Structure formats: C-alpha cells, structure tokens
Amino acid sequence: MTTAPDHAAAGGSGLLTEIDHVAIAVSDLEAAITYYSDTFGATVAHRERIDSDGVEEALIKVADSYIQLLTPTSDSSPVAKFLSSKGEGIHHVGYRVADCGRALQAVKDSGGRVIDEAPRPGSRGTTVAFVHPKAAFGTLIELVQE
Questions:
Q1: Is the pLDDT of residue 48 over 90?
Q2: Which of 63, 87, 92, 108 is placed for a possible disulfide with 140 were both Cys, Cβ 3.0 to 4.6 Å?
Q3: What is the CA radius of gyration of the chain?
C-alpha cells in the first residue's frame, strides 16, 4: 500500500494553495479586453509584455484570481503555435504555490514531465514553472509563486 506524500499547506490542497489564473489565448487582445469590459464590467488590473515568452498579457482580477488574456507577439511563441493548431480558448491554468521549486520537484519526483527544469521569472514579479500537459491529463499547468 502506498501513502500520499505529505503536502500540507495552509489555505489550499497540498502544494497548490489557490488558483492564480486561467489563461485564455486570443488573437486580438484589445477585442478580448473590450469584451470583458463591455459584457462584465471588468477592468484590466495588470498588463505586461513578456518578451521571453513571446506574449502580451492583460490580467482581469476576479476575486483573488485572474483571467489572463494572452496574445502572441511573435509567430514562434508557444501561444502563436497554440492559436494556429487549436484556435482561441483556454491555454493553461496557473496554480499558486508557496515554493515553486518545491512544487516543481514534486512533479519531477512523481515521474511527471516538465517544461521548465527550474523556476524562472514570470509576470507581476512572480516565479513560475510549467508542467507539460502530457503529465497532467492534457492540461498545461503553470506553478506560480508570488
């Protein structure tokens, strides 16, 4: 009989403490922002261009989480490839973690496939790492440490 690892963390479920964001890939960032503004009265809480990932993002605050609208800034970005093959829609889910390195190591220790071998800088001054969708039932996961 196997036992689950001890992943006790205040306020969450194991190493995952909260949902940080749901990322939606869009072709036209301005149109997506306008949609959320006109339809839901939502406003952009943060906007940033992340050249290392080839994207521009707009974050819309929803309670303690965000909707992250992503558009590619280059044809070679992963989001551009996603839009080309799958079209607009949910790209990934970001989960908050207290320690990105520890959470990433837990994925590796369990035999999971990762995209980032080590945590790296993310938007808003966060530290992030991505877990490959083949390791997570078809969902790209971003681990986010604030």
A1: yes
A2: 92
A3: 16
| pLDDT tens figures, 117-140 | 999 999 999 999 999 999 999 999
- Band of the pLDDT at 11, cuts 50, 70, 90? low
**Order of strands across the sheet that contains 16-25:** 44-50, 55-62, 65-72, 16-25, 89-97, 141-145, 127-131, 120-121
Is residue 118 a contact partner of residue 104, using CB atoms and an 8 Å limit?
yes
Q: Which of 66, 72, 32, 24 is nearest to 51 (CA)?
A: 72
Burial 19-50 (b: 16+ CB within 10 A, else e): bbbebbbbeebeebbeebeeeeeeebeeeeee
Q: pTM for the full model?
A: 0.90
Query: In order of start, what are the domains of the chain with their CATH numbers?
Result: 16-145 (3.10.180.10)
Q: Check pLDDT > 80 for residue 57.
A: yes
Q: How many CB atoms are located within 10 Å of the residue 86 CB? A: 11
What integer is the mean pLDDT of 106-119? 97
